[in-house]
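Researcher: We're teaching a course module on how sequence relates to structure. For the next exercise, students receive a sequence and then see the predicted structure as tokens, so they can try to spot secondary structure elements on their own. Here is the exercise chain.
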Amino acid sequence: MMNLLRGQRIKLAELCGKQNFHEFEFFIRTSMLSQNNATYDIGCFGVDEFGKCSDEKFFIFFNQKVSPGGGIELLDVTSINESLTRINIRKLPETIKKLVFTATVDADESLSELKRGELELIFESKTIGSFLFNGESFSDEKLCTRQFS
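Model: And here is the predicted structure for the students to work with:
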């Protein structure tokens, strides 16, 4: 298993030991531990060559769990602050060039208050890469608040 670093770039084929990563599926598992019992939601955007989510059908989150064709699927898990996303590269259209994962937290806490988080890359039932993070990873977080009258 490889410990992944912030900003690191590595080819999936290298991590998985495959020649062509377009031929397999893998999973991304995230788990987050709050200091104050906050609830976290993980989302995934399939973006095009310009870095844009050009089709909202490729924005996967708790309310839209599967992309067209089933290339990205947010699976049900039993833990409230854990997510498991199945990625099947074969089922994604060629217009999707990158997957971007996001985390949101309920309004009473910010991500900078996160106690511990982990993202795991799982292939053939084995964790092949792991990235650990905590609230310090979000020190540059931008908060958006709106007041409605």
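Model: If you want an answer key for the exercise: The first strand starts at residue 2 and ends at 3. The helical segments are 12-16.
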